[in-house]
Amino acid sequence: MREVWQLLHDGGICDAVGTVSGSVKSVWLGNNQTTAVRGDRVGRAVNDMNRKRRFRKLWQMGMLGTIALTTILLFLAYSLGPAYIDKRFNPVGIQYPEPVNADAKALHESLAIADLHADSLLWGRDLTQRADFAHVDLPRLIEGNVALQLFAVVTQVPDPLLLEGNRDDSDSLTKLAILQRWPLRTWSSPLERSLYQAKRLQRFAQKAPDQFRILNTQQDLSEYLAQRQTHPAMSAGILSLEGAQVLEGQLDNLDRLYEAGYRVIGLSHFFDNEVADSAHGIGLGGLSDLGRAVIRRMDERGLIIDLAHASPQTIDEVLALTQRPVLASHTGVQGTCENLRNLSDRQLQSIAQNGGIIGIGFWKTAVCGTDVEAIVRAMRYVADRIGVEHVALGSDFDGAVRVPFDVSHLDQITVGLLADGFTETEIQSIMGMNVVRLLRQHLPT
Question: CATH number of the domain at 98-442, out of 3.20.20.140, 3.30.300.30, 3.40.30.10, 3.40.50.300?
């Protein structure tokens, strides 16, 4: 064996094998180093991918959390927001009014009560259901023995809202419309807002046909009052508008409003519009050419003009032009509460000569008080100067004002009128029959 190995060694075979072995070793070591480098790069790439995956997962979780939180907040805003705003803007001053004695209660229950102004359609409540906040719904109308409620429709409110000097280029009502999920078409159109709110009242009438109806004609009123003699647990409504900005500059839109059920239209609200200037606006002018055309068309269609919120010049020009009695649906008088919003003695006389009716409001700006005595004091002032036949209720319930009580406690007014010395016949007139008389004669036939 030794001879064989010597032969291999001498022949250089071992050297060759050694060289080959060394080369193989070198290759093996080099491959290992290359593999290690590559392994480091792969490791870093894997780590980067893992970090990206974790970041993406965290981002996705954050987005899902944000979407979930936004959804919850939107749900709470849309479900709880309208009621919160309603409660905040329509408070009641006296939570527990004074008890009513038997005689006053019996008189109150015998009356046909009519109130000329409530903004209840603005707030999104189901008016067929009783609420424990705000001012008006059907159960409380019946409890208060209200035979007839004029439901006013608001379509634009300046922001900020001032007693004087409002411009017409802002509107806080858009936010309320969005919050209450009104149709998109109503977000920027006063006309569409008026048509939408009219449909809301119609749906309430359809939902409670044995308790509530909408009156459009003289015949509707007569039939309803006859039915109410034997079924007193019911009420009725008439649609009215605050501000002729709903016409959007087009006289023909008056016909659309008539077809939608509107029977009373206030020419201006808190700002001047294309029809007439407001007591709260900038111009303090009167009727425009379109406004005079509107008056003529309203007279032709049997629509009743409401002068609440109108500027002094608008009032004068309307009374000089119209052939029909007017309303000042919710107001005060300067004789007991002096401000530009309220009627002067001269304006009282002009409205009386026209055969019109003045609805006394229940809030502080109207009567300079927050109690029944302030309301009755204004009623007494009007009655003494132009006659009790021109006095009515003009509460402004649900009008973003604080009032002494909700509609279920209108017996507090009956008590106050008795205490002030009004006779039962006079109380019947003030509480509703003056309004009934005017509507019987001047609603469309």
Answer: 3.20.20.140
Closest CA to 256 of 182, 198, 205: 198
* C-alpha dist (Å) from residue 37 to 24, 31, 32, 43, 44: 20, 10, 9, 10, 11
Which pLDDT tens digits describe the chain residue by residue (445 residues)? Answer: 444 334 334 444 334 334 434 443 444 345 555 555 566 677 677 777 777 777 777 776 776 666 655 544 444 455 556 788 999 999 998 766 789 999 999 999 999 999 999 999 999 999 999 999 999 999 999 999 999 999 999 999 999 999 999 999 999 999 999 999 999 999 999 999 999 999 999 999 999 999 999 999 999 999 999 999 999 999 999 999 999 999 999 999 999 999 999 999 999 999 999 999 999 999 999 999 999 999 999 999 999 999 999 999 999 999 999 999 999 999 999 999 999 999 999 999 999 999 999 999 999 999 999 999 999 999 999 999 999 999 999 999 999 999 999 999 999 999 999 999 999 999 999 999 999 999 999 999 9
Q: With the C-alpha atoms ordered 44, 50, 53, 55, is the resulting torsion angle positive or negative?
A: negative
The two tokens of residue 219 are 């015949």
Neighbours of 347 (CB within 10 A): 21
Q: Name the residue ranges covered by the structural domains of the chain.
A: 2-64, 98-442
> In 3-state terms, what secondary structure has residue 156?
coil
> In whole angstroms, what is the distance from residue 387 CA to residue 400 CA?
30
d(CA 10, CA 71): 91
Phi and psi dihedrals of 328, rounded to 5?
-115, 90
